[in-house]
# Entry
Amino acid sequence: MIIFVGRSNVGKSTLIFRLTGKWVKRGKRPGVTRKPVEVNWRNRKIVDMPGFGFMSGVPKAKQEKVKDEIVHFIEDNADEIELAVLVIDGKAAPEIIERWEKRGEIPIDVEFYAFLQELKIPTIVAVNKMDKVRNVQKTINFLAEKFGVPYSAIPETFVPISAKFGKNLDGLRLLMEKKLRERKSSENLQNDVGDGLLDTVE
Ligand SMILES: Nc1nc2c(ncn2[C@@H]2O[C@H](COP(=O)(O)OP(=O)(O)OP(=O)(O)O)[C@@H](O)[C@H]2O)c(=O)[nH]1
Ligand SMILES: [Mg+2]
# Structure
């Protein structure tokens, strides 16, 4: 099982559609995906998770409930989850993170990354909407510092993409395959990951 997580409206569903070609509901406003949506793809389950954080037209209490449901889903399925792709809006995230820190709160993306590490779930951070970002490397370095990812581990953790415009999806797919292989070899399993598992749909 591979899960796609992240704040609302960062482009998780768009990314899944682009990577797998499977139809998932996408939309302009935060709060489109309301429940974990499972897509069967090449002998794997891909899960499109609801976004956490602001959802338009959804009361705050319900937003909190959705976040709890996401946490429970991940905890309940931790053994089965081979890989998490944490999707970030590369344009909006640095500002949001700084705003939360100024308020003395732990930014939700930082909290979620730490949560996935705690559960020992291999994680890739897909820095999406890079079409809107002027200095991509600077954004990634900033995020790495906030997430506590050492400089040397940046290339194996962060990947800039544009789901909407199909940019660097090959880079993401390669990193996903690498992480899946590493997990398999660490578990000493015999089965191969499979060729062309993560073909991009253009
Ligand atoms: N500019 C830009 N927009 C993007 C990109 N990827 C997705 N979007 C847009 O972001 C919006 C949200 O996309 P979704 O895929 O529905 O986002 P989501 O993360 O699944 O949202 P929730 O289900 O509400 O959590 C849509 O308007 C997409 O077209 C990108 O790479 N660049
Ligand atoms: Mg969605």
